[in-house]
Amino acid sequence: MSQQPVVFTRRSFLEGLNLSVGGLALGLVPTVSAEAAAPGVKSAPELRPNVFVHVAADGLVTIVCHRSEMGQGIRSSMPVVVADELGADMARVKVVQAVGDAVYGDQNTDGSSSIRGVFQDLRRTGATARTMLVAAAAKRWKVKPEACEAREHAVYLRDGQRSLGFGELVADAVKLPVPKAEAVQLRPLSELRRVGSELPLLDGPAYVTGKAVFGADVKLPGMLIAVVARPPVVGGKVARFDATRALAIPGVKQVLELPPPHRPYLFQGWGGVAVLAENTWAAMRGRQALDITWENGPNESYDSEKYRVALLESVRAPGKPARSVGDVDKALASAARVVEAEYYAPHLSHAPMEPPVALARVAGGVCEVWAATQHPQAARTEAAKTAGLPEDKVTVNVTLLGGGFGRKSKADFVAEAVFLAKTAGVPVRVQWTREDDIRHDYYHSASAQKLSAGLDAQGKPTAWLHRTSFPAIRSTFSEDVTGPVARDLNQGVLDLALDIPNVRAEMGEALAKVRIGWLRSVNNIFHAYAVGSFMDELAHARGVDPRDNLLEVIGPARKVSVAELGVTTLPNYGAPVEAHPVDAGRLRRVIERVTEMSGWNERAKNGRTLGLAAHRSFLSYVGVVVSMTKDAVGKARVDEAWVVVDAGLVVNPDRVRSQMEGSVIFGMSLAMYGSITMKEGATEQSNFRDYRLVRIADAPRAIHVDIVRSEEAPGGVGEPGVPPVAPAIVNAIFALTGIRVRELPIIRTVPV
Amino acid sequence: MSIRVRVNGVEQELDVDPEMPLLWALRDVLGLTGTKYGCGQALCGACSVHLDGQVVRACVTPIRRADGREVTTIEGLSPDGGHPLQRAWVELGVPQCGFCQSGQLMCAAALLAKKPQPTDADIDQSLAGNLCRCGTYTRIRAAVKKAAGVPDSK
């Protein structure tokens, strides 16, 4: 079958830490006709040159979206790339959400990787179908394919005299061999008619009418709803329980114990006791009525306040080097002045608006899952393991996500649903409550950092030492992890352009006491916070304008080599450094533009205090300025925000703008209020009352976004807007109040 | 106990626990899944519906309180998605993940019914209880004003 992949790469979360990028499954067997690849289609032929794009005889083009929709607008963006290459009219395109299957290549929707990872491959899927339709038309007209062009859902003879609709060509096209990838010519970028233009939001009407289908909106006959009491401490388990009172509640049908997970925790369920009921309310009441005695295990000793002290202690001593040029110790010892600062940032919870939810049915030797998952193939693997079935007997259907931010890459909630469905013998939807979500997350790492800079007699920086310490994500996947390794510092430490002759980065040890996971922009959050704050501290110490200082420390526009960075390799988000260099020029440009847009030079005259930060992440460059004011009761508030993003070539500018707007709000939440703490091993927060998020009245009056026009290879969009927000706010608060915030959330130091 | 409630103009008779929150009666019993569960404690607004025209958080409203009354959910806001707010939401590309938006729309609709020409402060006050983790707040303000025909100075 021609859609059988010859080669595909799938990245591993263990190796790549969710940061590398795999290609699409595009190996096309050229000798087999495309018709053979359409099993089950009996009457009308359908052109299926690959698993991503199908053309029916009635002209309907089906494009498969293999990445999950979680608010980034991927379903409104990816299909447009395919349609543009094909020459299809979007009004005659149907977008279908892929199930979890390795034939699609990597489907893990994280690492801001969807467009940047597969832009060229996606184009090739559409171009392949186009090449075949054009060849069919050329044959019919007895002309060379070069005399034909595909546009507006038809193939035209270039003289404009004749045309044939896509549908009319399908019967002929399916008889042709699928061309080899290298024989397929991509259009020049200028011919991609909709890419880069204002595109409609495909799912907009469904969202505003309540018709959009999220994780909890799928219903099966005979289904029960499960609410689970999970061990309050990671690694804890049920010592004993009594379900008598729970079973007495009307609507409660079964109470089942879930198996405790083994270390490392990976994507296993948490264990605990599930109450299965006819409706969610009964299941929730049933859980309340359970009488459970827990065995907490060794993580009971986890105390965030003590851990904070220990983490800060660890960055006061030398760590393992991860980046080194020159002689930092000598330069610091001989510096006329040394500027130093320590920073701390706590655990965070993802808190997507829809808490985790999955529905499973295990019957007749097959397992079906409907889940709000960012990572349908991991969900499939976990479901198969739990059901005791081979993966080809497992189907994972992907609903809309209701937010993800990294939480829904983990398949633990899918494992729970499959276990319960199998054990109960009926379809089961496992519904996490908000309390479950906040208390049992794969948390963003707590972190401590120390930055030191040496200045010469003229105030010029001669040395830069950055120490960072945090429990690493790998600890969730492997037992022998004692802290970060060099590649964990890729995010904002190794790839930081510095025009300073002596630079060293070091990492300290930190043992994980909870499940650590990736949260939107990951380690960039705390690294950008510390670096962006320290740049501002350095400017004030030197008596230099913060923007001028930043530009000077970054240095002249240049592509910074691996040697200049002082590393042997750069993980670089899975992309080759040649295609995506550390480009100081692009970083400078977003700083220059965002300061120009925000009236940086006139800030005193305008009575504003502004804060600036800029950061490279996921191969994109983002500069942020925020203005701060004090409100009537003396609280600092973000009044306005400006964002300049250089993400290379942009497919869907409106979704890029919306991601930047959202990043400002997400960044404000984590900077001002976000904090998850543990006491006796258990999470102290439980709902939006104590895990505070930005509300509409806290939102800036306006968020201005400017996208740098570029034909550079696409970079990430979903995450890169977040990292510079916290340091920009902290710097603006310093300008407003004279108080330097060295610990997040800000509310612990300054009223916000 | 049987509860009679008119939902989106249709008379319904429900044989459920009178303490069951309206949210779960709508979602699990009537199959109206446009109203969302986000927190269960009236903290996020994702479950906002109208009870006799007033906004309530369905997750903390026992179904017995709706007995003999009229409930409007997102599915009943307009027959065809043509409410000015729904149109403005789509035109301005407000939703990101979309999950909170039915609650946002129901609160915004109640605001416009009371105050057809709202200011930013009115909007912020009326939607203070509606969280959006994706951060669509600035577009929500713009879309409410667009629907109301109030010029947006931003």
Automatic annotation (TrEMBL), chain B:
Cited PROSITE patterns: 2FE2S_FER_1, 2FE2S_FER_2
Domain 2Fe-2S ferredoxin-type span(s) in chain numbering: 1-77
Keyword terms of this UniProt record: 2Fe-2S, Iron, Iron-sulfur, Metal-binding, Oxidoreductase
Any matching Pfam family: Fer2
Protein name: (2Fe-2S)-binding protein
One annotated GO molecular function: metal ion binding
Domain of life: Bacteria
Keyword S-adenosyl-L-methionine assigned: no
